[in-house]
Amino acid sequence: MKKELKQEALKSYIPKLSSLQTFFTLMKGFVGIAMLLFPNGYHNAGWLFGTCTTLVVSGMIIFSTNLLLSVSDQVSGSFSTLGEKSMGRIGKIFCDISLGLTQTGFVCMHIVFIAQNINGIFASNFGFTVNKWLIGLACLFIYTPLCWVRRLQYFAKFHIFADISVILALVVITYFSALNFHP
């Protein structure tokens, strides 16, 4: 009971992101990298399988998000709280482990993406590559202090820059993909 009161008191002092800030945060975090990986994914999967898979996965995500929203309307709290209220202590542990593994996977994929792009830049412009483990270590030193920041609203003003970068990269990828398209 005391813990719940403390959490309610904290909620009243935490400034919330505006709708526009939330939109840009979600665009950068979830849509940005996926859009940059789309051309290679379609190249590997083919246009028919890639399109069908994208539609099926998008439908599953929309369905799952609607389920989460309907549950969060009835039960307030984090994913761990929802897991605990629906399945007990095991549900809380499962949600925490799942979130940890998911975030670890995203970070690892992001670091590999950065390492491949940096190596591509160095190989095409300077004729040499950098050890991917060194790039990963550099990312670790940059990302670790950023992960200690607990409130996303501190980064909200930088999200617009990230979104503009993603949109420009998407335009460049689309342009060069259209130039190299051979039916």
In DSSP terms (H or I, runs of 4 or more residues), the helix count works out at: 7
Rg computed from alpha carbons, rounded to a whole number of angstroms: 20 Å
Largest beta-sheet characterization: none
- What overall form do the CA principal axes indicate? globular
Helix content: over 70%
Oligomer: single chain
Low-confidence stretches: none
- Summed over residues and divided by their number, the pLDDT gives a mean of 78
How many E-type strands? 0
- Work out the strand percent: under 5%
Could you give the order of the helices and strands? HHHHHHH
3D architecture notes:
With about 180 residues, the chain is mainly alpha-helical. The chain contains seven helices and no strands. The protein has helices at about 1-15, 20-45, 45-75, 80-85, 90-125, 130-145, 155-180. Helix 2 (about 20-45) packs antiparallel against helix 3 (about 45-75). The longest helix has about 40 residues, at about 90-125. The chain is globular and about 55 Å long. It starts with a helix and ends with a helix. The model has no long low-confidence stretch (mean pLDDT about 80).
Main attributes of the structure:
single chain, 183 residues, mainly alpha, 7 helices, 84% helix
Q: How would you summarize the topology of this molecule?
A:
Elements: H1 2-13, H2 19-45, H3 47-74, H4 79-87, H5 89-126, H6 132-147, H7 156-179
Task: Offer a concise description of the structure.
By secondary structure, the protein is mainly alpha-helical. The chain is 84% helix and 0% strand. The N and C termini lie far apart (65 Å).
